[in-house]
Amino acid sequence: MSLHFLRVPIMSERAPRRSTDEEAAPLLRDDDDDVGSTQEEEEPTLLERLNSIAQEPLTPLTQILLVVALVLLLLSAVFIGLFAGEYTKLKQREREDGPRPTVTVTQTAIVTTTAKPPGPTGSPAEEVCITPECIKLSASILSSLDVSKDPCENFFEFANGGWIASHPLPADKGSFGQFEALSIDNKRVVQHFLETPSATSSFTTSADEQLLHKLRSFYNSCLNENRLDEIGNEPLLQFVKTVKKLFRREGFEISEISSENDLSGLTPALVFLHSRGVHALFTFKIKGDAGFDSNLMVPWLDQAPLGLRAKEYYQEPEIVRIYHDVLERLFATLLKEDKKTTLLAENQWNIDHETDKNAQINEARRIAASVVMFETKLANVTLDNGAYQHPFLTYNRLPFENLTELFPQVDFSQYFAALTPRRFPEDIIVTSPAYVVALSKLLHSSSPATVEAYLVARAALALSPNLGMATEPWAAQRALEEALTGIKKGTIGNRKEYCVDKVEATLGFAAGRYFVNATFGSDPEFQEKSREIIKNIISVFKASLPNISWLDEKSAGAAARKAAVIRPIVGYPDYPDVREPSSLLQYYSTMEVNEDTYFDNLLSAAASDVSRTWLKVGQRRNPGEWTFPVYPSTVDAYFDARANEIVFPAGILQPPFLSTQWPSYLSYGAFGSVAGHELTHAFDSAGRLYNQHGMLENWWTPESNAAFQIRQKCIEAQFSNYTVDDGQGGAIHLNGEFSSGENIGDSGLIHAYRAWKARFNESQNAGTEYLLPGLNYTREQLFFIAFARIWGENVKTATLVQRVRTDPHSPRNLRVEGTLSNIPEFAEAFQCPNGSKLNPPDEQRCVFWS
């Protein structure tokens, strides 16, 4: 990259005149003022002389001298920054044991430093880029560092301490990091075209006009808080009444519960809930049949989310108490407004809801207790998180008749006929037959009243956030959110940000059309750069396979064939085609949007999504369709084992992950680590069991399979040994089995490092390995700093606990340091002494790819 001087604008005309009351002399002078005057002229003041000079035209020589002076000033600032940075590092180096040698330098003062610990290796004697872009980039990196931390012991805080200190956690959020910061920036892009018609004035097709109208109507309905408060609890109340009528078979042949254990209304009630996106008892996902034909879309039955999200919470009395109180508040509200019938089918008591408040409260309390007890039993039979790392265990293909026998309380003929009328599934994939059997037993032993209350609770918890914030159900579910995430009580986030988030969640591909135009349209090169990085990482990974000591020739060849056909999708999906508005309009054709009914808009969006999903049953997979809930504006990436695809939405292809103006060592360290992570998922604890066609197959030889499992057990043990604060004076261990796939994925950082190294000479000749001003670090060190910076985050303790229990990703600080401790190249780059935290003995490292 060529270096450029900063251009300094030169004024060719005088500055604007001051007002007349500040003039040193009149604009026009009379002759009498100069000629024949006997009064001595006054000496001009300093201000007047400066003003006179400022108004004189600059000569060419003066202009040149000004430019030279500014450049010298800029260079001085850079050298001062270098000196200050080095001085700071020298002051904090107190690492080695024993007597500390001192070096005394005498000038006008005496400076004493300790022995030099591992750290920056000094400024390379190369040209430094001093363009404004380079200076800004260098400043952003310097400001993110905390050089008081030893990089060999605490690299996460070394790389992120400055950023964390300058980005305090917002009161309304459980966590905030680099991912979230970029996500908010992306939301502002979406918000701009939602609120500014001129921002999309170039889109003049009829289809675009309809899409934009739908997007803006949905957004405005969310913003209309006055309307939400005006309608109050009514939308939720009507939804719950429908659930109860269906469960009680009102309007069907059976008009009331005919026996104590009659659950004949369970099926229609579940169909209604599931068709509106409310999860209860079980869920269905429509995915490729990885054991028969990975492109044939079939239903996969899995367990439903729990009200407390993780089974461990049901063993914590304080959290259970809060949950009980929240449910009690919800049921009390519903009982108060539902005056015609009682909530529980078995209880036919007659209470004046207006006068007997104590009876109403007692009944709500009893109902809440029955739901908590039911969910506790449900949690006890749910599959442990670690089981999801075993694809063969969670793939159980059953004929339709077998499912009916396992779970007789649900009429699956009726269920599927309602959701997929065109193609009735012949076979079902069940994640855990044991869960289905246990669930059936639980339903058999539970009263219809308790089951109905559970269904109502699932609806109330799921839909209460869509009511006005002045309503009691909204406040109740918010209390649960505060308890589980640790966010400050009573804090409310930015409503516009929230509403943009809802737009993305419901109309994400439509919004993506205009987001992509605002990002790719202004700089299409970053799509090309990301593709190049991904391609190079895959190429280097394939080339490294024959050199991996524990991988035999047959397994290495199969791995290379799989890597060769991995398909990267960058920016946006092929289906729906965000470049074609008519395709998007068809995709969202069944979704009704009214600017006056936010609650109904969300139900319509959920129903549209469920209907669109079930129509895939029996169909071939749409090539290039995204199977994970991400959209073009999402800051995320993923690997789809059944499609053998890695997906990178446009939302993540920006700083601090990627920029076309960055030197290669930063691009590979940041975005390259993401690409290496997703590539490695194809060969992690679960992904490695899918072949190049996305089919479940143990294609490893017994020897290579055993060698991989040794390394997998190593990383499971490593991360199981890590703990996080539980907020109560204790600690919670990570579940190394649950997080093993993601931790192995993070080991793909080494592929990004090798890909950068393999093309260093080529990149340097192309001018994309330039150094930055004020950074006294080698390129290798900056590669790892770029990797660590993307994981910078502030997080609440309660949110961290919830993540450990529900998220397969390890906490971000442990993702950084756990990964780097397994990569010897990091210790070499920072000259870490043997035995330091991030340079452990070789026998303690979990190394996969060497």
TrEMBL record:
Keywords: Hydrolase, Membrane, Metal-binding, Metalloprotease, Protease, Transmembrane, Transmembrane helix, Zinc. Residues 151-573 form the Peptidase M13 N-terminal domain. One of its GO terms (molecular function) is metal ion binding. Its cofactor is Zn(2+). The chain crosses the membrane at residues 64-85. The keyword Transmembrane helix applies. Pfam families: Peptidase_M13 (PF01431), Peptidase_M13_N (PF05649). Residues 637-846 form the Peptidase M13 C-terminal domain. One of its GO terms (biological process) is protein processing. The keyword Transcription does not apply. GO terms for cellular component: plasma membrane. It comes from the Eukaryota. Residues 30-45 have a biased composition (Acidic residues). Residues 14-47 are annotated as: Disordered. InterPro entries: MetalloPept_cat_dom_sf (IPR024079), Peptidase_M13 (IPR000718), Peptidase_M13_C (IPR018497), Peptidase_M13_dom_2 (IPR042089), Peptidase_M13_N (IPR008753). PANTHER family: FI17812P1-RELATED, ZINC METALLOPROTEASE FAMILY M13 NEPRILYSIN-RELATED. Belongs to the peptidase M13 family. This is Endothelin-converting enzyme 1. It comes from Mycena indigotica.
